[in-house]
Design goal:
Elements lengths: L1 H18 L8 H18 L6 H7 L7 H20 L4 H25 L2 E2 L2 E2 L3 H20 L5 H16 L3
Antiparallel strand pairs: 1-2
Helix pairs in contact: 1-2, 2-4, 2-6, 3-4, 4-5, 5-6, 6-7
Length: 169
């Protein structure tokens, strides 16, 4: 998944910069915010290029004006990326991004269930998509909302969100 590669690469580069003395990047939450911002800017590009048509097909039936939703969510990703990096807007942006990740999950699940493609490739399978969305939510919450780090608590939140999103079988 290219999205995860962008997230990890930006996160690692931010941590290296922090280790080399860039004070703004000398913590894991700061590096994760940079990784998330890079990932969001990367994914937002698809909302405004030729892939936007594939994204519009991913939107579940019944949602009016799919192309407008594609543009809107792309703008939300850009605003969220910028907001996540600005200390004054970090918390609000993180909560808004969490809401966005939850709001776009039905489109991603619809695409997986319908066997749709993105740029000619099959979309991420349902189980992996849920896991990735949970990861994005947990990272956003941990780096953007929560001040102190607690990997155990973050793992607990991930498990609860995963169970809630997976639902009863």
């Amino acid at each position: 998944m290219a999205v995860l590669s962008v997230l990890v690469a930006a996160l690692v580069l931010a941590r290296v910069a922090g280790a080399l003395g860039v004070r703004a990047l000398d913590s894991w939450p700061a590096a994760i915010r940079v990784g998330l911002a890079a990932m969001l800017l990367f994914t937002s590009m698809a909302h405004f290029n030729a892939l936007r048509h594939d994204l519009a097909r991913m939107i579940p039936p019944g949602v009016p004006n799919p192309m407008a939703m594609v543009y809107f969510t792309g703008l939300c990703e850009i605003a969220g990326a910028i907001g996540l990096l600005a200390p004054r807007t970090r918390r609000a942006a993180a909560w808004a991004l969490i809401a966005l990740f939850l709001a776009i999950l039905p489109a991603n699940l619809h695409a997986a269930r319908a066997g749709l493609t993105l740029a000619g490739n099959p979309v991420t399978p349902e189980g992996k998509r849920i896991a990735v969305q949970v990861l994005f939510i947990v990272l956003t919450w941990w780096a953007g909302v929560r001040h102190a780090s607690s990997p155990v608590r973050s793992l607990a939140v991930a498990l609860v969100l995963s169970a809630a999103l997976d639902g009863p079988r």
